[in-house]
Amino acid sequence: MSRLSAVIPELRDPKVPPWPDWARTDRLAQEMLLRMLFSALVDADFLDTQAHFRGASGVFVSPRLGMAELLRRFEHKRMKRFGARPSSDVGEMRAQVYRDCVAAAGLPPGFFRLAAPTGAGKTIAVGGFALHHAARFEMRRVVVAVPFLSVTDQNAQVYRDFLDSGGTGRVVLEHHTAVNVEGGRGSRWRRLAAENWDAEFIITTTVQLFESLHARTPSRMRKLHRLARSVIVLDEVQAIPVHVLEPVLLVLRQLVDHFGVTVVLSSATQPEFWHLPVVDGVKPRPIISDTARLYATLKRVRYRWWTRPKPTLAEVAAEAATHPKALVVVNTTAHARVIAGEWSGREDAQVRHLSTRMCSRHRLDTIDKIRELLSGDGRVLVVSTQLIEAGVDLDFPAVYRAMAPAESLLQAAGRCNREGCLGHAGGLVVVFDPVETGSPPTYAIPVHETRKHFGPAKGQAELDDLDEFAAYSASVYSSLSPIDRGQAVVDARAEWDCRRVADLFRMIDDNTVPVVVDYTPTDDQKLRKRADRVLSAIRRGLTPRPDELRHLQPFLATIPRGRAQRDSRAVPLIGDLHVWTGHYDSTYGIDLDSEET
User: Fold this and answer.
1) Contact by Cβ (8 Å): 415, 408
2) Of 383, 307, 402, which is closest to residue 338 (Cα–Cα)?
3) I need a labelling partner for 92 at 20 to 30 A (CA). Which of 86, 119, 213, 409 fits?
4) Which residues, in sequence order, are bridge partners of residue 144?
5) Could you give all domains of the chain from N- to C-terminal order, each with its CATH number?
6) pTM of the model
7) Half-sphere exposure of residue 391, counting CA atoms within 13 Å on the CB side?
8) Contact, 355 vs 384, CB < 8 A?
9) How many CB atoms lie within 10 A of CB 495?
10) Beta-carbon neighbour count of residue 10 at 10 Å?
């Protein structure tokens, strides 16, 4: 100890800072503080170690533009893009949404909610709020978390256009498992900044954000202290899985109460969970000044209920095909295959299919192709599982949605007449209750409540009735027990059982396993070659680094865990990762129904 003290004199007379008052008696608050301290410690250790082996005189720190400069760039780009556009009702309402966001940004840090219908320009508006707020209150960074990779890619491109028009690649950090941090301009900065979120504007997924906040390994936790004094935007907040709701709300409250964070909950379908004990007393401030008027002005669809008698999937497919362009959203991959099968062989329409049986890059490529087809004059028929609902920027004149929770029905409606170009009649949204059964188990309670609150019967409300939706949402959360909402994770945190917390907290359903599939993007052969090199290394018994495993992510699809255990075509690779050796269809992805080889 004496030799160590000679090198580090501070050890002779350590000055231990006192616990803050808010952490003295609250074990959950103490646990959160320890997580933040551990994060700062391991990050400092990583940075010092990197500097030592590089022979550098100091640690790597990302260059700072400052929130004022980011805000200046954002406003300049916004005015350049929208300032000269001719006025319209939709354009004026989007401008009002932005003005409301800028006005609300001057309010003190805390919880905010941005409730605005699809097509209201939320991506740009919430970015404006975050930058104005961060500049006003000297906050350090903006973190935008979205639920799905397709939305992440879409939003990241918008923010790069606004904040990094020079294409340096060193302004907006996109961090999730689908991003290749190697190659291109700014690749070294992206690789280093992704390790500890040393950036001022970050796009990530809710899975990356919240699983890191409940992790126990240094590599996952070293970014946590970067969240202090930041603006966190949760886009499509309704997509937070119910089974982790309580731990998610608790950690958000702790960040706001004790670490100078502002949280913005952005969604067209705002969940009403503020009566739950973990957020007791929290009252988020609304950003929009007149929500009812905004929704009424931007109403772009009419609803029809096809529930009595119940149609078959074949009947739904046939009626949808009478429209020049139509989207059908169903609850299971099997139902998506049925609908697509009904349309197969048609020569008068382009048919596309989307589901989790397709790997993430295949889905993104398909969405890009659908967007291209919709811009033309030809007939387009698309069937998808619910993955298309949250923030995917597609616009159909007719949307058919299988019975689902009200928020899912409304999100599907957001893909209909998105730009408001169909005149007074608007787009058509058909809610159908198919004869063929099948839906996720988590749908049981919310679908039951949806049938009670909404529908064609006398006394039932339309789906876009805001007051009724609030009542529906509150009743759904009240119907769930604390265990169903993830109370076990909160209990484990109170016991400082970090291993149990990490084991229990899973944003994604453990009933599926990831499988690497044989898909090659036509426009990016190198992406596939990098993945194949990683696969080859694993098969030779080598353990890949986390950044190497990231190369596999674009080619991952999911199948049920039980099916993987009994299907010889799903070959175990490492951990719960498998390789699919069976046929991979260019339209449907993994074909579980074909004969095993």
Assistant:
1) no
2) 383
3) 409
4) 203, 233
5) 73-295 (3.40.50.300), 300-463 (3.40.50.300), 512-590 (no CATH)
6) 0.86
7) 25
8) yes
9) 12
10) 8
